[in-house]
Write a structure and sequence with these properties.
Layout (H helix, E strand, L loop, with lengths): L21 H29 L2 H4 L3 E3 L3 E4 L7 E9 L8 E4 L8 E4 L12 E9 L7 E9 L2
Parallel strand pairs: 5-7
Antiparallel strand pairs: 1-2, 2-7, 3-4, 3-6, 4-5, 6-7
Length: 148
């Protein structure tokens, strides 16, 4: 007697294609839109800050005898002498002749002032000492006070 062959087992077909729900697509669209909006707002905020001159410009003084920055913290070093044009081996645009000879000369640059207007005058300079390669004393001048 032949036994009946078992009936084949049929499994339902499982689709391997991913199904995207409408909610997932909506979340992705919202996240991308929020990122674009945030970037736009932040870029406009930083542009408006950087274009404001009062945010970066130091306070300046200009009287009959004093010219330059009022920032005494940055420009805390001082020297007195006669201001002359010329540096030493490419360091400095000007120099301050002081009593005691060449060893007392201060070589100067200025990130704030045009030093040419003070050439030949006895001045007191306020600045920040920098490391020089050839100059014994190199100073970035922030303020000049005319003495004579």
């Amino acid at each position: 007697m032949d036994s009946p062959s078992p009936a084949p087992i049929v499994h339902p077909e499982i689709s391997s294609a991913p199904r995207f729900s409408v909610a997932l697509v909506a979340v992705v669209v919202i996240v991308v839109a929020a990122g674009i909006a945030t970037g736009f707002l932040l870029s406009r905020k930083s542009v408006s800050k950087s274009s404001s001159p009062s945010a970066t410009a130091p306070d300046m003084i200009q009287t009959a005898t004093e010219f330059g920055s009022t920032d005494t913290k940055t420009f805390s070093d001082t020297a007195t002498g006669q201001l002359q044009a010329g540096g030493i081996k490419g360091e400095g645009t000007h120099h301050l002749v002081r009593p005691g000879g060449d060893s007392q000369t201060v070589y100067l640059i200025s990130s704030v002032l045009d030093l040419d207007q003070f050439v030949g005058k006895q001045v007191q300079v306020y600045g920040q000492t920098l490391k020089g390669r050839y100059a014994g004393w190199l100073m970035d001048v922030g303020r000049v006070k005319i003495l004579q």
